[in-house]
Amino acid sequence: MPGLVLSRILVGIGEGVSPSAATDLIARSIPLQERSRAVAVVFGGLSFGSVLGLLFAPPIIQNLGWESVFYIFGLLGIIWCIGFESLKGKQLGNNKGLLNLGQSSSGSDGLVPSAVSSESSDSSLEDLQNSLKDVPWGAFFKSKAVWAMIYAHFCGSWGHYTCLSWLPTFFSEELNLNLTEAAWVSVLPPLGSIVITSIAAPFADNLIANGVDTTKVRKICQTIAFVSPAIFMMLSSVDLGLPPWEIVAFLTSGLALSSFAFSGLYCTHQDISREYASILLGITNTVGAVPGIVGVALTGYLLDSTHSWSISLFAPSVFFYLTGTAVWLAFASSEPQDFSKSGPES
User: Fold this and answer.
1) Is the separation of the CB atoms in 309 and 174 below 8 Å?
2) pLDDT in tens, 173-189
3) Pairing with 311, which of 116, 123, 132, 225 sits 20 to 30 Å away (CA)?
4) Of 47, 40, 49, 42, which Cα lies nearest the Cα of 20?
5) Predicted confidence band at 133 (pLDDT cuts at 50, 70, 90)?
């Protein structure tokens, strides 16, 4: 057991850098009018992987043992790394260490030195420390837009992690679905997310391409991502005498619509600063990981204390979804910010 726990910790450490790395690549290579689709493709892979895992893991475990899932997952990761390193080498060779930033919000094209250059592997620890000192940490936390992203990420993660952990139990105990039915129902939210993501991303990009203000587009998408699950959770928590499958449909719809966040919050880091997009996502994602620890445990504690799914699971999520919406509408912005210059709070 200690070895298994340690391996999971190491997986978390390794995977923790991937969202920021992906954000940096998108920010430096994808124009604004295509940003939502790029983010949707990259982060939508989480839903696609969840569906494949839920479908294929049970038969693999049944036929090859539970250890086989870890071996297969690790092998796929190694294959991906080899392929990506080969692709990265060709990209750097073609662009001579430069990545196309595409069009900026003002419509200009430009090239900047890639954050991942061929010489990066030779950088010393001292160079790394100096580069971190140059990051305008203070300017980040003086920005209202950054604080809006931090709180929105926390709120979205609260609903995501608590539902991910507790909905199968809710389906089994509260809706009286058997284990097989509960397992199949667990596939529906990520499957719905794939469908919604394929609609939301082109919708957002088309609005921006047609001249709609980027901040307005991000606010619309994030509001849909928060208000939709809040409404469906409230309907599911009230005793309306609905049959189990209608409640499942409500929750699936709400969680699927939360994927509009890929065209809202998850694009805003790049909107306000392509240079520091990866660091900004690292900040918000770190705060967003807290509900995965605190929220899941608190839900269990409240469930044991109150024996109420409405109070333990749905009420906190609804609270954070609605307050997150209010903060987002009040303070979120996609206006590019120059954090390297000290200025008034924005």
Assistant:
1) yes
2) 888 887 667 777 878 88
3) 225
4) 42
5) low
Q: Give backbone dihedrals phi and psi of 207, rounded to 5 degrees, phi first.
A: -60, -45
Q: What average pLDDT does range 270-294 have in this prediction?
A: 94
Q: What is the pLDDT of residues 70-102, one digit of tens each?
A: 888 889 888 988 887 777 666 655 554 444 444
φ/ψ of residue 254, rounded to 5 = -65, -45
- d(CA 198, CA 44) in angstroms, rounded, equals 9
Fold topology of 14-103+137-331: Growth Hormone; Chain: A; (1.20.1250)
Half-sphere exposure of 172 (CA within 13 A, CB side): 12
* Residue 175 three-state SS: coil
β strands within the chain, DSSP E? 98-103, 109-113
Rounded to an integer, what is the distance from CA 162 to the centroid of its chain?
15
Q: Would you mind telling me the total number of residues written for the chain in this entry?
A: 346
Burial class (CB in 10 A: 0-12, 13-18, 19+), 293: exposed
Report how far residue 300's alpha carbon sits from residue 100's, in angstroms, rounded to the nearest whole number.
48
